[in-house]
Amino acid sequence: MNNILNSRIVLTGVGLTSPIGNDLETYRKSLLEGRSGVRLTDVRHMGELPAGVCDFEATKYQNRKELRIGTRAGSIGVFCAHEALAHAGLEMDALEPSRVGVYVGTTEHGNVETENEIHNLSQYDNDVRFWSHHHNPRTIANNPAGEITVNLGITGPHYAIGAACAAGNAGIIQGVQMLRLGEVDLALAGGVSESIHTFGIFAGFRSQNALAKHDDPAQASRPFDKDRNGIVVSEGGCLYVLERLDDALARGASILAEVAGYCMNSDGTDYVLPNPIRQGECIRDALKKASMKPSEVDLVSSHATSTPQGDVQECDALRKAFGDDEVLVNNTKSFIGHAMGAAGALELAGNLPSFVDGVVHPTINVTSLDPACDLPGLVLNEPKATDGIDVILNNSFGMLGINSVLVLKKFQC
């Protein structure tokens, strides 16, 4: 048992859909080319707003009846799960289905389906006989993970992990823990988001004065910029195949990265405003679990959402955690918007190729850097070539003060 608890956990496959690509190669190419995926989309009751919209082939793994019965989040999860297994060189027919676990981070679930049902019902004088009998399975919290298991015939444990915008990291952390406990032999873990299909989230951010606006939607998400004014809501998903190192080596798997450490903690101070002290502690504790010093980190994938206060608070947290140690910092939300429950997992994916090519993609849309966000290692507007990236730290923070940090390292035997 002790050997399992101390197992090294590695990433051997990734499946994703994002506003700038539906596979890792396309996604990475878009990041290095500085291409935004944010465009205008029609939001019920609110008109056209900037958003990150995915365009993947849903019928690749589901028939039209399954798509009609299920949810957008579930469909994103199914697509990502299949793509992750394929990327890892695995087929479900060759796996023991009871030893596969599915752990999907979500920010919220059910809002889209409930809003749609209420809207549809209003067309029939609110006669509840027209309420869909699919509503309950569509809106239960475990839906996205459950749809994956139904589609793939997985009989191991599944659940969705509600951790606000820290959920993508949280899903991966849960997968690591379940592998080390010996509960599963393979984990499909990460996060999904269908957020752009609910007007409520747009309206909520607007009421908080936290919804981005810009004449050019591609420039609406602008973390660290002096003129940033809010969040661009995005959909997307990213799931990883996680395995114990011994199992991965035994089957000759190609290893993307190794999970070196992680931490989750809570601010315990506010519903919305982040606490840089707690964020800094989360970063330091993740590095402690990884047996690393701050100076060993090469790249920080920042959470920065393009809100005036949030970006400054994270920069303060990074200063507290790294002190005088200069570390490169980039941001992916500037390309795709904020993918909520999928954010941490998607943002990590865009940086994983840096372990191979040593190139760091930039934060785009920074035309006037906010002095309060002026970190010495910020990579802005153009990719940066390095002598090599060996350690990536992935920040992901959420409402009600939930913080998550993952530390990944380049795999070495």
How would you sum up this structure, described in words?
The structure is a single chain. β14 and β15 form a beta hairpin. The strands form 3 sheets. This protein has a 10-stranded mixed sheet, with helices on both faces. It has a 3-stranded mixed sheet with strand order 2-3-7, covered by helices on one side. With 413 residues, it is an alpha/beta fold. It has 2 domains: 2-250, Peroxisomal Thiolase, Chain A, domain 1; 262-409, Peroxisomal Thiolase, Chain A, domain 1 (3-Layer(aba) Sandwich). 33% of the residues lie in helices and 21% in strands. The chain has helices at residues 2-5, 24-33, 64-69, 72-87, 111-122, 135-139, 143-152, 167-180, 199-207, 245-250, 276-289, 308-322, 333-336, 343-351, 354-357; strands spanning 9-17, 38-43, 47-52, 100-106, 158-162, 186-193, 233-234, 236-244, 257-266, 299-301, 328-330, 359-360, 384-385, 391-398, 402-409.
CATH class of the largest domain, named: Alpha Beta
Q: Tell me the name of the CATH homologous superfamily of the largest domain.
A: Thiolase/Chalcone synthase
User: pLDDT below 50 for ≥5 consecutive residues: which ranges?
Assistant: none
Class based on secondary structure composition and strand pairing: alpha/beta
Radius of gyration: 20 Å
Quaternary structure of the protein = single chain
Mean pLDDT: 97
The strands making up the biggest β-sheet line up spatially as: 5-4-6-8-1-9-15-14-10-11
| Biggest sheet statistics | 10 strands, mixed
User: Strand-and-helix sequence, N→C?
Assistant: HEHEEHHEHHHEHEHEEHEHEHEHHHEEEE
Question: What is the CATH fold-level name of the largest domain?
Answer: Peroxisomal Thiolase, Chain A, domain 1
User: Total helix count?
Assistant: 15
Q: What portion of the residues fall into strands of 2 or more residues?
A: 15-25%
Q: Percent of residues in helical segments?
A: 25-40%
Distance between the first and last residues' Cα = 22 Å
- How many distinct beta strands? 15
How many independent structural domains?
A: 2
Instruction: Indicate the CATH architecture of the largest domain.
Output: 3-Layer(aba) Sandwich
Question: Globular, elongated, flat, extended or rod-shaped: what is the shape?
Answer: globular
